Structures are given as structure tokens and as C-alpha cells.
């Protein structure tokens, strides 16, 4: 099934949406993980868990539009020995069922995989009510949760497999639109908690995840023409954050830009800042959604209007370089 | 099943005395909310219903009891101690730092706890999950969930009720401990959920309404639930909050006695009332 049209301007070739890659990966992992069960809240055809459900109907439970119960049922299945997966829109699975994620999953450390789809403003026309823009921050506030934001289809596949192999709760964030390819299946390396260095550089480091990884690479290319050497990290795992990569970035490049499709508060930028402040304080600038809701519009128009662009990442890079030299 | 009822009465008294002593020792807790539930917990653990072996508390084929009204943890701890899961004297560590017996049940700390509860409304959903898992495993495992009556104000309860009805989970029994009080007053006034049985019935459940402080009625209701096929079971258990020390509560002019231990100076009197039994 084709996803939405591309919303991210990039020189890279367009790949599938991360939700599609997740859905196919889940479907194929159903065979090797015989204890895997999926609990849906009647959005399986949007989140792509439907593909698993069609292949394994006995292990797929649609409990209706009721995320609190969805998470609780998944917790019970996990407590009985299953690997449970729940998925809905990021806004709903995280915000509607937050206390259930806290109390029935995180506190007892149950093996529940939580997949929030339709994250960010890039879903487009449906508008603010459907846009999960605080999900990463909230997921990071659940003790013991691993929080993952893959950049493209290959990394979403790899992240889905890594999530299943991990024992314990995981939040995986995926998106609706087709996104530019950053990796190929042949070359991708994906390890939870370990950033991928996509490009080496010495003047500053751009740390991105999700659909901002493509624009981060584009920005790095543009900056190279100005003689600026940029390191680019795909920080797909927000928790636990790769402190070694942050230490190297701070010590070796001395300036950091963080780019993400998330509110300023609580997302990757917050986590980077908290850790860098402790390890080695260096100037940091941010490209994110600030402190505001999204709205209706085409994905392309929204991405532009909210500044999630390579041009904005490059501007932030110039600004942080100036601060570094000041 | 062949446990003489006198023996169950004796166990119920022991559980009530444990509840009183451990909460007074802790200096906090919910003895009255625990005491209303004693006959149901006694029937489950000692009346032949719950297939639970204290020597093998993680047996995957065991039956499960989820105390969704987690603040009544003392009744569960008392039952598990009498089952031999841990030494009886450990009950006196309730709510102290490092104890396995936390203020609300923590399944990571103590085998025999099937759900970490305390945020009300969540236990029945976990019960649906356990019941679905038992159906997949075809192991005949039964799941029992006890909720409070005030707890029924939580919308998640009704999400869970609807989903249990959808799947026809006859291996799931929800017991509503309708003791008539919640934190600030009567649960008939704060948010009256009557008819509770009618609500569950409308979601496809088989329902019963019983006197939940009558040991024989509880046994009979659980027996009927066990033989019921095709639908989940709801037992509306009409009880008295603080059952066993009602005279003392009346003397202290507190018919709710919510969320507080019996002061040490009244403990002997409370124990004596439990020993004497309810006339």
C-alpha cells in the first residue's frame, strides 16, 4: 500500500513510511516469535498491525477504541508470558493510556512493546488532535522504557527487530508519510542505545532522529560548501541515550545542533542538553516544534511552516558555530 | 471444596486479626477496606477455588487473583501468609522500607501478586489479558479480579467489561466488593453505579448479587460462576466496610473508617470483637 506523498524535502530517494516498514517487519516476526500477541484499538489498518492480524488472527485482539483497556489487556498477556504489542496513534496510545503504561507496564517491567504511529506534524491535514508531538518526552518519563525513533524504512525494520529481541518495555515511534532513505538494508547497523554516525566532521555535530535525519544530512552537505565540517548522528534511541557519542561530539566538535519533530520540552533536545551539560557543556541550538500545537495543512506546508527544514538546521548550525567561537 | 465451613470461618477470623495488627503496626493503611473482602478472599484461597501453590507461585498454569482495589493489600498479604508463601511474622513489616509488603501490591517484590495495583480501575483489564492468555494456552486457568465499588467510577472498568463480553471469557470472574463507602463518603452518593449487575449484564456478563460477608453464599456464588459457560462472571458482593469490627466503628462514630489503622489503644477491643464474631 502506498503511503502519503513525501513531506520532507531531501536529495535522498524516497522510501516507505516508517509505519509501513514496521508493519511488514511485525508481520514477518510473527513466525519466529510464537508468543507475540498484538492488541489493537481499532486502528490496525492505520498503524499496520493489521498485516500481523491477517496472518495470525488467533494472536490479534481488537478491543475497540479504548486505549486504556488495550494497554491493560496487553499487560495481562505479557504477565502470562507473552510478548505483547500495542499500537495506536502516538497521541492516543501515549496520552490516553499514560497511567496504564505507567502502572500496568512500566512499574511491573512487563514485556510490552508500544508503537505510536502518526507521530509529529507530518501527518498533515487531520490536524492537532491527531498529532503526537509530546510522546517521546512522555515515554522517556516512564521508568525502564526504551524509546526509539527510527529515521527511515530500513531503520524502522531494524528497530522493530531490536525491540522484539529486547526484554522489557519499549516505545517505538513511527510516522505516516513516506520518508527519504537514509540507510539500505545491506549497510544498516542498528543497536539499541547506540547512535549511528552518518558522517564524520570536526566543527560541530548535528544530532537528529526520525524524519529530521534526512534534512540533517542535507544541511551538512550545504554547510560543507561553506567549508564547515559537520558530524551527523542518527540518535534513534532517545533512552537510553548514547552518552559516549555525546561525549565525543562535545569534546571533539565543541558545538551541537539537535533536530527533531517534537515539542522542545522533553524530547531528544532535552535529553541531549541534560547529558551534555553534565559531560562537557558546549553551545547547543535546537530545531523542533517549540511549545505549540500543530494544525491542519498538507505535510509539506506544515513542515515548511514549522521550520523542520534543512535550511533551518543549517541556520542553527551557523548560529551554534558563532556561539562556539564567541 | 470439601473444606468444612467452620474451618473457613476460623481462617476468616485469623485474616481479620492479621489485617488489624499489621495496619496498626504500620501506623497507616486500609483495614476497613480489607475486612469487607475477607469472606471472598477466604473462599478463593482456602475454599478450593484458586489453584495456587505457594511452593510454586509462578506455575504458568496457576489460577490468578488480581486485587484491583490495591489499597486492600492487607487482606491479600494475610491470605498469602496463611498459604505459606512467606513467614507469618513478615506481615508486621507492612509498609516499611524494604518490605515486600508495600502499601499497595507490587508484583515485582512478591510472588503471588498477579498485578501491581493501586491506581484504581486497571486490574480488570489485566484480568482480561490473563484470561485471553489462558484461552490461547488451553490450560484451564481461571482468573478472579476483585474491584471496589467506588472503583467502578473508572471508565477503564467498563472498557474491560465490554472486551470481556466480546470474547465471552467464562474463565474470568469479577467480584465487586460493594462495601458501600469510598474515600469521602457513601458510594451510593458519591457516584452511584447501581444497578451494578445490570451494567455488567448489559456487556454480556453472567451476574449474581450476594451477601459477600456470608461465607456460604460466597462459596455458592463461586461454584455457580465456575460452572458457567460462554460468558464472563460478575459477582456483586454486598458487604460492610470494616466487617468484623462494626461495633467498635459505631462506638468511634465512624461508619467508613477509611484509610486509617485502628489506634493501638483500641486494638485489643477490635481483636476481641473479631474473635467474638458477628452475631
Reading side by side through the largest sheet of chain A, how are the strands ordered? 3-2-4-5-7-6-12
- Given this structure, which CATH class of the largest domain in chain A is correct? Alpha Beta
Question: If you average the pLDDT of chain B, what whole number results?
Answer: 97
* Largest interface: pair, residues per side: A-B, 30 and 33 residues
Question: Could you estimate the helical fraction of the residues of chain A in percent?
Answer: 25-40%
How many beta strands in the DSSP annotation of chain B? 7
Structure report:
The complex is a heterodimer of chains A (326) and B (279). Chain A is an alpha/beta fold. Chain A has 2 domains: 15-180, Thiamin diphosphate (ThDP)-binding fold, Pyr/PP domains (Rossmann fold, 3-Layer(aba) Sandwich); 196-325, Rossmann fold (3-Layer(aba) Sandwich), CATH 3.40.50.920. Chain A has helices at residues 18-32, 44-47, 50-55, 67-79, 90-95, 98-106, 135-140, 153-165, 213-224, 243-253, 268-279, 299-305, 310-325; strands spanning 14-17, 36-40, 60-62, 83-89, 112-117, 146-148, 170-173, 178-180, 196-199, 204-208, 230-234, 237-239, 256-259, 284-287. Chain A has a 7-stranded mixed beta sheet, with helices on both faces. The longest helix of chain A is centred in the C-terminal third of the chain and has 16 residues, at 310-325. Chain A starts with 13 loop residues before the first strand and ends with a helix. The relative contact order of chain A is 0.15. The model of chain A is unreliable at 1-5 (pLDDT under 50). Chain B has 279 residues and is α/β, with parallel strands linked by helices. Chain B has one domain (33-87, 98-241): Rossmann fold (3-Layer(aba) Sandwich). In chain B, the strands form 2 sheets. In chain B, strands 1-2-3-7-6 form a 5-stranded parallel beta sheet, with helices on both faces. In chain B, strands 4-5 form a two-stranded antiparallel ribbon. In chain B, strand 4 and strand 5 form a beta hairpin. The radius of gyration of chain B is 17 Å and the shape is globular. Classes of the chains: A alpha/beta (326), B alpha/beta (279). At the A-B interface, helix 4 and helix 6 of A face helix 5 and helix 6 of B.
Amino acid at each position: 500500500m502506498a503511503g502519503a506523498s513525501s513531506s520532507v524535502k531531501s536529495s535522498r530517494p524516497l522510501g516507505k513510511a516508517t509505519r509501513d516498514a514496521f508493519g511488514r517487519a511485525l508481520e514477518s516476526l510473527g513466525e519466529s516469535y510464537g508468543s507475540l500477541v498484538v492488541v489493537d484499538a481499532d486502528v490496525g489498518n492505520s498503524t499496520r498491525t493489521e498485516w500481523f492480524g491477517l496472518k495470525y488472527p488467533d494472536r490479534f485482539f481488537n478491543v475497540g477504541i479504548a486505549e486504556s483497556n488495550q494497554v491493560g489487556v496487553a499487560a495481562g498477556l505479557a504477565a502470562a508470558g507473552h510478548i505483547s504489542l500495542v499500537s495506536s496513534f502516538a497521541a492516543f496510545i501515549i496520552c490516553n493510556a499514560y497511567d496504564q503504561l505507567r502502572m500496568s507496564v512500566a512499574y511491573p517491567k512487563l514485556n510490552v512493546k508500544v508503537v505510536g504511529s502518526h507521530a509529529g506534524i507530518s501527518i498533515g491535514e487531520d490536524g492537532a488532535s491527531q498529532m503526537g508531538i509530546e510522546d517521546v518526552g512522555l515515554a522517556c518519563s516512564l521508568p525502564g522504557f526504551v524509546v526509539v525513533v527510527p529515521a527511515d524504512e530500513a531503520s524502522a525494520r531494524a528497530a522493530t527487530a531490536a525491540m522484539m529481541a529486547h526484554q522489557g518495555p519499549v516505545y517505538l515511534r513511527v510516522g505516516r508519510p513516506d520518508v527519504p532513505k537514509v540507510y539500505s538494508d545491506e549497510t544498516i547497523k542498528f543497536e539499541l542505545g547506540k547512535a549511528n554516525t552518518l558522517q564524520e566532521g570536526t566543527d560541530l555535530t548535528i544530532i537528529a532522529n526520525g524524519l529530521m535525519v534526512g534534512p540533517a544530512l542535507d544541511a551538512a552537505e550545504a554547510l560543507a560548501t561553506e567549508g564547515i565540517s559537520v558530524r551527523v548522528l542518527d540518535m534513534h534511541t532517545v533512552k537510553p541515550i548514547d552518552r559516549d557519542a555525546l561525549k565525543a561530539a562535545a569534546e571533539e566538535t565543541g558545538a551541537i545542533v539537535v533536530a527533531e519533530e517534537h515539542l522542545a520540552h522533553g524530547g531528544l533536545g532535552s535529553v541531549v542538553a541534560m547529558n551534555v551539560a553534565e559531560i562537557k557543556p558546549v553551545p547547543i541550538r535546537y530545531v523542533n516544534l517549540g511549545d505549540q500545537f500543530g494544525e491542519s495543512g498538507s505535510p509539506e506546508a506544515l513542515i515548511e511552516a514549522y521550520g523542520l527544514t534543512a535550511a533551518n538546521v543549517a541556520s542553527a548550525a551557523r548560529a551554534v558555530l558563532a556561539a562556539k567561537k564567541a | 471444596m470439601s473444606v468444612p465451613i467452620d474451618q473457613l470461618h476460623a481462617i476468616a477470623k485469623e485474616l481479620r486479626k492479621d489485617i488489624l495488627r499489621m495496619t496498626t503496626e504500620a501506623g497507616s493503611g486500609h483495614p476497613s477496606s480489607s475486612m469487607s473482602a475477607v469472606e471472598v478472599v477466604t473462599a478463593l484461597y482456602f475454599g478450593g477455588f484458586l489453584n495456587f501453590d505457594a511452593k510454586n507461585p509462578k506455575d504458568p498454569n496457576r489460577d490468578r487473583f488480581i486485587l484491583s482495589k490495591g489499597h486492600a493489600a492487607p487482606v491479600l498479604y494475610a491470605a498469602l501468609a496463611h498459604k505459606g508463601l512467606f513467614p507469618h511474622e513478615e506481615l508486621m513489616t507492612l509498609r516499611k522500607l524494604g518490605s515486600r509488603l508495600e502499601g499497595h501490591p507490587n508484583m515485582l517484590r512478591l510472588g503471588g501478586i498477579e498485578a501491581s495495583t493501586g491506581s484504581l480501575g486497571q486490574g480488570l483489564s489485566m484480568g482480561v489479558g490473563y484470561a485471553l492468555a489462558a484461552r490461547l494456552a488451553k490450560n484451564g486457568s481461571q482468573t478472579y479480579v476483585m474491584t471496589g465499588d467506588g472503583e467502578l467510577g473508572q471508565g477503564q472498568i467498563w472498557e474491560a467489561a465490554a472486551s470481556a463480553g466480546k470474547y465471552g471469557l467464562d474463565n474470568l470472574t469479577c467480584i465487586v466488593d460493594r462495601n458501600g463507602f469510598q474515600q469521602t463518603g457513601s458510594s451510593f452518593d458519591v457516584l452511584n453505579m447501581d444497578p451494578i449487575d445490570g451494567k455488567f449484564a448489559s456487556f454480556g456478563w453472567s451476574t449474581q448479587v450476594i451477601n459477600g460477608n456470608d461465607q456460604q453464599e460466597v462459596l455458592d456464588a463461586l461454584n455457580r460462576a465456575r460452572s458457567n459457560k460462554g460468558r464472563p462472571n460478575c459477582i456483586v458482593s454486598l458487604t460492610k466496610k470494616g466487617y468484623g469490627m462494626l461495633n467498635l466503628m459505631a462506638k468511634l462514630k465512624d461508619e467508613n473508617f477509611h484509610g486509617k489503622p485502628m489506634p493501638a489503644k483500641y486494638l485489643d477491643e477490635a481483636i476481641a470483637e473479631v474473635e467474638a464474631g458477628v452475631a
